[in-house]
Design goal:
Largest sheet: 6 strands, parallel
Radius of gyration: 21 Å
Number of strands: 13
Shape: globular
């Protein structure tokens, strides 16, 4: 599943041009602008995995409005709704937001409701990286519930968490809030990964005002001494106005650089901002800002911002499915040349090995339900997720005694142990622990597909 806030399609020549550095780095460039065009490209290339996608409402906004912080005009909102309508007819699963990031954070609740109503007409769903996972989490969840209620759409909260140290211990309370909304008749749920650290763009450590308008304007502001000073002051003081992940993770020791595009910065991958600052003999905030400039806002970081007890409370709750919140990776090819979060490698093994087998936090059957039928049902994929005649044969065979997560934060590039067989649509893509090279993956079309 992909398309959190920003999606591979629909897209435009302007958005493709903005991503030129990444396209060059990974050796691919879109020859599509519509979702059906992307699906055609996916089928031509072939894949070992199935793929389904949401329409990212950040992408819809970027196509129509750009990266500016303002409300959509009626005509612009109509254009965004039309983009959603077309994508739903081409097979999107629903709509998704990522409301901590530019430009998605500029979508108002009313604008989201309008676009979610379009998805709901086709039987789609709404998944969200909610507006706040920290100090404003109660108000943020109320927004999710309002969207579900007014758009009459099932809603899920991506990678549910209570982030930043002042909010540790709040997970039981927000889970009760989720239960209360269900009891009131809303079709809402959540998903979560089994780690105490997240990952996103390094520039997300900076205050929203300096990111407004996109990467080019961000980099220009960081080179302005007055704006740089103002941004530093914002990063170093507590605030309920924005998600200050730099302060929330404890400062430079809690932020680890993991992926860069600039080859000159490769030596810093896997180091914390504190370690990089020491090596460069710089102030940590200056080191972070200079990294954003040097990598043209393409760097990613791991941020240590959750409490283990909160993670455990979410993992065992009946309404919380599992996710990775990560792109997939590989031990070979270009992805083996960069660091990443272990959640993209070992989330399933972490749950089955640590939390089920070793700690008995939840029963094996419940963990499997969360990984399969619950996850499929929340995305309205009703032909998958259960072993039953007539269902798609996506099957993982694992040896619970041998399951082990091999990936770590500092050494992530390792597949997990204990998974000898994986079948996708009835064909083995992993046989005896070895990748077969078979490409049986399919596009998983949403309910509105024509």
């Amino acid at each position: 599943m992909t398309g959190e806030g920003q999606s591979i399609a629909p897209t435009s020549a302007r958005l493709i041009a903005l991503g030129e550095e990444a396209w060059k780095h990974y050796g691919v460039r879109p020859d599509w602008t519509t979702l059906s065009g992307y699906f055609d490209a996916f089928r031509r290339k072939g894949a070992a995995i199935n793929l389904g996608t949401f329409v990212g409402l950040g992408t819809a906004r970027a196509m129509v409005i750009g990266e500016s912080d303002r409300r959509a005009t009626p005509a612009e909102l109509e254009k965004m709704e039309a983009l959603v309508d077309q994508a739903m007819r081409e097979g999107a699963l629903g709509v998704s937001t990522s409301l901590q990031y530019v430009p998605d954070m500029y979508n108002s609740t009313e604008e989201i409701i309008a676009m979610a109503k379009v998805a709901a007409r086709y039987g789609g769903v709404y998944f969200t990286h909610q507006r706040s996972e920290s100090n404003r989490i109660d108000a943020s969840m109320d927004e999710v519930f309002r969207i579900a209620r007014e758009a009459k759409i099932p809603a899920d909260i991506w990678h549910f968490k209570t982030a930043d140290k002042p909010n540790w211990g709040k997970m039981p309370g927000v889970l009760q809030k989720l239960e209360k909304a269900r009891a009131e008749g809303l079709d809402v749920a959540a998903n979560q990964y089994p780690w105490t650290a997240g990952e996103n763009g390094l520039d997300a450590c900076l205050p929203p005002w300096i990111r407004e308008g996109g990467a080019e304007k961000l980099l220009a502001r960081l080179k302005d001494p007055a704006m740089r000073k103002r941004a530093r002051e914002d990063m170093l003081k507590p605030s309920d106005d924005w998600e200050n992940q730099y302060l929330g993770s404890g400062g430079p020791d809690g932020v680890m650089l993991v992926t860069v595009l600039n080859p000159d910065l490769k030596k810093y991958e896997g180091m914390t901002i504190a370690q990089i600052a020491a090596a460069q003999k710089k102030d940590p905030v200056d080191a972070l800002m200079d990294l954003v400039i040097a990598d043209k806002a393409n760097s990613y970081n791991i941020i240590f911002m959750m409490d283990e007890n909160d993670v455990r409370a979410g993992l065992k709750h009946r309404l919380v499915a599992f996710c990775t919140d990560s792109s997939a990776s590989a031990e070979d090819g270009i992805f083996s040349q960069e660091k990443s979060h272990p959640r993209g490698w070992a989330s399933t093994a972490q749950i089955l090995g640590k939390y089920v087998r070793d700690e008995k936090l939840l029963p094996l059957e419940e963990a499997v339900r969360k990984m399969s039928s619950l996850s499929a049902a929340r995305a309205h994929l009703f032909d998958r997720g259960i072993l039953r005649e007539g269902m798609a044969a996506d099957v993982v065979a694992f040896d619970l005694a041998r399951v082990a997560a091999k990936a770590t934060y500092t050494d992530p590039l390792h597949y997990s142990a204990g998974f000898p067989y994986v079948a996708v649509n009835g064909a083995l893509v992993v046989d005896g622990g070895k990748i077969t090279g078979a490409l049986p993956g399919k596009i998983l079309l949403g309910p509105g597909a024509r």
